[in-house]
Amino acid sequence: MKGCLQHDISLSQVASLSILAFFGILAVRPLAAAPVNSLFNPNRYTSVMAGELKPLTSLSFNTSNLTWSVDGVLQGTSGIVDTTQTGSPGEVEAAVFTFDAIRLSGLGANVSITGHRAVVLVSKTSILVRNTTLSVNAENGVLVGSGQTLDGGAGGPGAEGGIVSNSYNSTSATIRGKGGVGSSGGTPTDGVGYGGGKLGGSDSAGNGGGYGGLGGEGRYSTPPYLGPIYGEDTIIRLYGGSGGSGGRIATGDETGSGGGGGGAIELSALTTLTLDCVTIRANGGSGGGSNSARRGGGGGSGGGIILGCNSIVLTNSSTVIAKGGDGGRAANGTQYGGS
């Protein structure tokens, strides 16, 4: 296709790839015959179907109920929940879908990934993704009007890493990595997750969620309660991002709720992974904007992406990105929430 210049990239060149990862975490790592070099080695799993996964028009995965559909036809509940990637069962859950081979071509934006767990697509041989978008983005926060109290944006699939025991304040799968509640005259909340942005002073914009770096500082937040760092230079666990905190303001003014944390996704091929004119996104949601009071919500942090393979082929027009969401902006475009 026009604009798609292919490059064959050896393992020694992987470290020099131009791949974006702002406040999220991304890793490209080789797989060996043994699982020591990968979080999700294909040799550990059984294929959910015989032959190649090759949808014609659409594909969907639900990481909560472990179902998947091809071209609108439900294929059953055949994904598995993996809790052994860290050696501590129950610490992290990811939904793993394993195939003999994977070929996703020309699907555009018609790939749906939903649910609260991270998604891992595993191939016993190769993976080819062409002219297709894979997204585990979070939802944005919203504008909170005078006298209102509104929820923040939802985290993407796998936000906070799915299910992590005794390490965050979530009580339900429905709020993992969620942005904080924004409130005008009521009670706002912190962002949810390891690196959730914390509430500032009594009259302040929301603070951004952290992950690979500290969350951004919200305007008028005293002191700036930034979302902490919990990411790693080399991913050990497939964590997602955390939510930004909501803004708070007295009744009579507007504020914004926090953006959700980006989700988590891995593509794991035993042989070659090819990305041709592909977009893979695990972005945090932007904080809700505040038109008048300049107290926007904090942006959620970017999530986690792992590309596991023995060799990788990328084109110039492929994009892999895990960035934090912008803080909420005022009507004049000035950013006041942390990001």
Protein described:
With 339 residues, the protein is mainly β. It has strands at 6-9, 25-30, 52-53, 59-62, 67-70, 73-77, 80-82, 94-99, 101-108, 111-114, 118-123, 127-135, 143-144, 149-150, 182-184, 248-249, 255-256, 264-269, 272-276, 279-281, 304-309, 311-315, 319-321. Strands 1, 3, 9, 12, 19, 20, 22 and 23 form an 8-stranded mixed β-sheet that branches. Mean pLDDT is 80; it is low at 1-23, 86-90 and 163-171.
Provide a compact summary of the structure:
This protein has 339 residues and is an all-beta fold. The chain contains no helices and 23 strands. It is 0% helix and 29% strand.
Q: What is the subunit organization of this protein?
A: single chain
N-end to C-end Cα span? 36 Å
H/I helix tally: 0
Amount of beta strand:
25-35%
**Secondary structure: helix percent:** under 10%
* Helix and strand sequence: EEEEEEEEEEEEEEEEEEEEEEE
Mean pLDDT: 80
Number of strands: 23
Radius of gyration: 20 Å
Coarse morphology: elongated
Uncertain spans = 1-23, 86-90, 163-171
Largest sheet: 8 strands, mixed
Q: Which terms summarize this structure?
A:
339 residues, mainly beta, 8-stranded mixed beta sheet, 6-stranded mixed beta sheet, 0% helix, elongated, disordered N terminus
Describe the protein's topology.
Elements (H helix, E strand, L loop, with lengths): L5 E4 L15 E6 L21 E2 L5 E4 L4 E4 L2 E5 L2 E3 L11 E6 L1 E8 L2 E4 L3 E6 L3 E9 L7 E2 L4 E2 L31 E3 L63 E2 L5 E2 L7 E6 L2 E5 L2 E3 L22 E6 L1 E5 L3 E3 L18
Parallel strand pairs: 2-21, 3-9, 4-10, 8-11, 9-12, 11-18, 12-19, 12-20, 15-16, 18-21, 19-22, 20-23
Antiparallel strand pairs: 1-22, 4-5, 5-6, 7-8, 13-17, 14-15
